[in-house]
Amino acid sequence: MPQDALNLAGFNEDAAENIYENRRRFLKLFRGEWTLGACWQTHSADVRIVKNVEDARPPEASLGENVYCDALTTNVPRILLGVKTADCVPVLLADARTRACAAVHAGWRGTLQSIVRRALERMAEEYGTRAEDVRAAIGPAALGCCYEVGHEVIEAFHERFTDADHLFRRTREGHALVDLHRANREQLIAGGVSGEKIHVAPLCTICRPDLFFSYRREKRVHGRTGRLMSVIGMMSAKR
């Protein structure tokens, strides 16, 4: 249950004091002082620029995050950009040349809208990032072994991408398993990121409830679930 684990988000399913205490403990794992910047995720393709430390912090009276988007990017040192997942795909992007980074939340809707490509574009616009300089990490998510979707998702992908067939493996009439890890990796490569610089954690959140929160598995059993958080930040500014 969320209250018994290191739940880092989901204010509507766990007490705020639990989540804030878990975040405090989480931040203690990082050397020095860091500010956590996160967002209220809406399965969009919106990318927010975090310009300074104050920009990263929610107002004191705010319960949880008060900025609505699904990706964050910054070049400010000592800010940890975080995205929250419990089956969706977390993608972290780092540009050592410009010292810019991004955290991306890519569920099937975000993947459909190519949110990782949009994050690369915003990094290029704001910081002069070149895709060939980017290193990417794709974290644990619901994988093609377990993540079954219905005809509406299958049809939406085929309408958007002419080569979407290879992302699906049919299970029953109108349903298929979808590989969002593969989809996001291919979108990064199409955006100019070298395949050798994309690191993928081959772990399924649905398969491994001993390690990860899974919305699909735990929501069905317990009625609620916690959230993982994937973070990225630069220790120092560009020289």
Would you give an account of this structure?
The protein is an alpha/beta fold and 239 residues long. The protein has one domain: 4-Layer Sandwich (CNF1/YfiH-like putative cysteine hydrolases), CATH 3.60.140. It is built from seven helices and twelve strands. The protein has helices spanning 16-27, 53-56, 108-112, 115-127, 151-160, 180-190, 215-222, and strands spanning 35-37, 47-49, 71-74, 79-85, 89-95, 100-106, 134-138, 148-150, 168-172, 175-178, 198-200, 228-232. The longest helix has 13 residues, at 115-127. The termini are far apart. The mean pLDDT is 90.
Task: Summarize the model shown.
The chain is an alpha/beta fold and 239 residues long.
